Amino acid sequence: MSCDGRPLRISVFGAGSIGCYVGGRLAAAGAEVTLIGRERVGAEIRDGLRLTDLHGADIRVGAADIVFATGPESAATADLVVVSVKSAGTPEAGAALASAIGSDTVVVSAQNGLGNADTLRAALPEQVVLAAMVPFNVVHRGDGHFHQGSEGDLEIEQHPAVRAFAPVFDDAGLPLHARADFRSVQWAKLLLNLNNAVNALSGLPLREELSQRSFRRAVALAQREALTLLTARGIAVAKLTPLPPQWIPRLLTVPDGVFRVAGSRMLAIDPHARSSMWDDLEAGRRTEVDWISGEIVRLAAASGTAAPVNARLVELIREAEAGGNRHWSGDALLDDLRSRRGPRKPTGKRQRN
Fold first, then answer.
1. What are residue 35's DSSP bridge partners?
2. Is the C-alpha dihedral spanning 16, 323, 226, 251 positive or negative?
3. Do the beta carbons of residue 68 and residue 42 sit within 8 Å?
4. Confidence band for 4, pLDDT divided at 50, 70 and 90
5. Which residue blocks in the chain are alpha helix, DSSP H?
6. What is the pLDDT of residue 342?
């Protein structure tokens, strides 16, 4: 509820898979929700939403309980705007909202990447703009059905404004965890998201891809490269899983049987889950690889060095967007990425990664 006793008014700007799922859960909890997105989404959900998750939840939101719109003016009376557009659309979203919402509207960037909240702040200097992180995967299953395929709680930048809307997120089963050092949370999420490109190139559901050691080793190469750069720059990385981030690449390289047990304890993933990058390739959309693997490439450039593994993943995703290979075997992808690293210094020990 808002401070005057009426239902909280929430607009979701960019109603894709994440936006429809989060917005639908909030509507089911009693918020007045407006989904703002493309006409094709509105046509699909005209009879309402079905929201399921890996724990067995099955929530129906009737068409009368949610409003769908295509223009930013529909956010004019919102108490809270959740921005869930793809990263490339953030400048346009900021400009559109600047002409539509009041100065007392709180804006939350629930997007991948590191700089989207800053982009929105530049466009919305009078509003409180907060960064948030959605850790779980949402699969669009068609006919208004959106499925949460992995676990995790929402993280948000710490700010007094969060108190006004946190209760409705709690009621929706989407509790908000406020963090003072949110940039470390974003880096932690980005490290986990380095699997997105590998998953998209495998063409497999997440759980099947991660069941194969060669694919996991490919992810570990990308993560180790990133962690080396982050450590050199003194950049903190939050602990989002039971394992510290520095230990995750080691876990990824263990034999399949060991990983089945240890990996399931770290993160629950159901058979339907896929990465958003796979979903974008499947739909013929440009992916967010520049805001995930590309962030590591830019960090390396700023450090006067290179990130050849992550740079190659960006290159392969761009090729896949243009019709290239989207069904790599784990061995072939791992060999390709290893070949890009260049010569390694001898250590006297056999290298396994």
1. 12, 68
2. positive
3. yes
4. low
5. 17-28, 39-44, 90-98, 116-123, 162-171, 182-193, 195-202, 206-210, 213-233, 248-252, 256-266, 276-283, 293-302, 308-321, 330-339
6. 54
Share of the chain above pLDDT 90, in %: 87
Phi, psi of 147 (to 5 degrees): -120, 125
**SS3 (DSSP) at 81:** strand
Nearest to 130, CA basis, from 200, 91, 83, 167? 83
pLDDT digits (tens, 9 = 90+) for 289-317: 999 999 999 999 999 999 999 999 999 99
pLDDT for 278 beyond 70:
yes
For residue 230, the Cα-to-chain-centroid distance in whole angstroms is: 20
Contacts of 96 (CB under 8 A, 6+ apart): 13, 72
Segment 175-197 shows an average pLDDT of 96
Using the 8-state DSSP alphabet, how is residue 109 labeled?
E
Closest C-alpha among 310, 313, 300 to residue 232: 300
